[in-house]
Design goal:
Blueprint lengths: L18 H4 L12 E2 L2 H7 L1 E4 L3 E5 L4 E4 L22 E2 L9 E6 L10 E5 L24 E6 L7 E3 L5 E3 L8 E8 L5 E5 L15 E6 L2 E17 L14 E11 L4 H8 L5 E4 L9 E4 L5 H10 L2
Length: 310
């Protein structure tokens, strides 16, 4: 079932180098994030950009899920939270910039996960009415296809021989892409996605992006949120360190994601504000938990609205 995803040719635009460099394209074997995701799919999946450089996914029109380190001031798991006024949430399918009013973090004991929920304020991104996505209960297996979304780097750093020789940094971030992987090293709180047969792999900027297990005849199951990647090389003559590990990276072998299954119930409870909404359990027609406004008495009307938006 694992489909081949066509390589995307990425243009490299560098303002501080020659016109020759402006017209260079990265070789196809360096595309590390797969096929570009169209805007309508981004909208329907709720794919957003968090804090300018991380990926995220809307759970409802008010709540999104991302990596915990994406909402911190130092980029570290469990680090100091970014003030609400300083954290922007944007999307290609919305002209609005939203700000958070609440964080729900799972980086501490007992979860120790690089996952956080972000509640948006009075101004949200709009978009479709959203029922909560199907969340993994522990079904992830190594034989399943896992679809990854992320808007991180799409090509690694490389040296163009010229003349004259020119070092090209990693780039292409800011455009959502997708690729299919197989999970490995599955444990209670995490799993890994290794470089696939098309030489695609997650990258910096995909942090906070969602992974979905594909199921025949059923909607995809959200299984995890990308946390970190393992760099395998640095362009000769350049520096890759803790302060800037990715600008000159030449390879990534695998990325690690935190599993949502251990905190599934916490996600459902947090994303459905109990003061304003009530939880509606799955049914045969809509096999997902939904947040239903308490002011709405007719459940049939809500069901029809959510069903047509699936």
């Amino acid at each position: 079932m694992r489909a081949s995803i066509a390589a995307l040719i990425a243009a490299i635009c560098l303002s501080n180098v020659s016109a020759r460099a402006d017209n260079l394209t990265a070789p196809s074997e360096r595309i590390i994030n797969g096929a570009q995701v169209d805007i309508e799919t981004q909208r329907s999946r709720g794919l957003v950009t968090v804090n300018g450089g991380c990926s995220g996914t809307m759970l409802t029109h008010k709540w999104l899920i991302t990596a915990d380190h994406c909402i911190t001031t130092n980029g570290q798991i469990g680090g100091p939270p970014t003030p609400f006024a300083n954290l922007a949430v944007t999307a290609t399918w919305s002209t609005t910039t939203a700000r958070p009013t609440q964080y729900v973090r799972f980086s501490g004991t007992p979860n120790n996960l690089d996952i956080a929920l972000v509640e948006l304020g009075g101004i949200d991104l709009g978009g479709p009415v959203r029922a909560l996505p199907a969340l993994d209960t522990g079904a992830l297996v190594t034989t399943a296809d896992v679809l990854k979304y992320g808007q991180g780097f799409s090509f690694f750093a490389r040296r163009d021989p010229g003349p004259p020789p020119l070092d090209i940094p990693s780039g292409g971030a800011g455009t959502y892409r997708q690729a299919i992987f197989a999970a490995s090293d599955i444990v209670a709180n995490s799993y890994r996605l290794q470089t696939n047969g098309n030489n695609q792999v997650g990258a910096a900027g995909d942090s906070g992006g969602s992974d979905w297990m594909l199921r025949a005849g059923q909607e995809p199951l959200m299984v995890g949120i990308q946390s970190s990647c393992n760099r395998t090389g640095c362009l000769a003559g350049q520096i890759c360190n803790a302060t800037d590990p990715w600008t000159w990276a030449t390879g990534i072998s695998r990325c690690t994601s935190g599993r949502v299954s251990p905190i599934r119930n916490d996600i459902i409870r947090a994303a459905c504000d109990q003061k304003a909404n009530r939880l509606r359990p799955p049914t045969l027609l809509i096999p997902r938990w939904r947040c239903v406004p308490r002011s709405i008495q007719s459940m049939q009307v809500v069901d029809l609205l959510l069903l047509t938006d699936r």
